[in-house]
Amino acid sequence: MELSAEYLREKLQRDLEAEHVDTTLNRCSCSFRVLVVSAKFEGKPLLQRHRLVNACLAEELPHIHAFEQKTLTPDQWARERQK
User: Fold this and answer.
1) Nearest to 66 by CA among 20, 22, 34
2) Residues forming beta bridges with residue 7, ordered by sequence position
3) C-alpha–C-alpha distance, residues 7 and 60, integer Å
4) Which strand ranges, in their side-by-side order, compose the sheet holding 66-72?
């Protein structure tokens, strides 16, 4: 399976109704870092947020060597951007 940062970004935006997704290809072609901002994360602890992302990418994760994720609500994202 050929994966790209753009493919992951589009899938996360669509499935999680994310208002912002930033995907970065790390050192190798199957190592990704993602930032996902979604209202679906409101009221959920970090583990549940990560599980939502993992469920969204369940078909792709077995083909990814390394995957780092940061999940924020829209309010958290707005505060981070003000720093």
Assistant:
1) 34
2) none
3) 10
4) 20-25, 31-37, 66-72
Identify the DSSP state of 58: T
Query: CA 15, 44, 49 angle in degrees (round to 5)?
Result: 45
| DSSP type of residue 46 | H
Residue 9 carries which side chain, given as an amino acid letter? R
Rg of the chain over all Cα atoms, to the nearest angstrom: 12
Choose among 15, 19, 17, 11: nearest CA to 64. 11
pTM: 0.91
Residue 56 identity: C
Tokens 């505060």: give the residue. Answer: 79
Question: What is residue 25's predicted lDDT score, i.e. its pLDDT?
Answer: 81
User: Rounded to whole angstroms, how far apart are CA atoms 75 and 69?
Assistant: 18
Q: What pLDDT, in 10s, does the model give residues 16-65?
A: 999 999 998 876 678 899 999 999 999 999 999 999 999 999 999 999 98
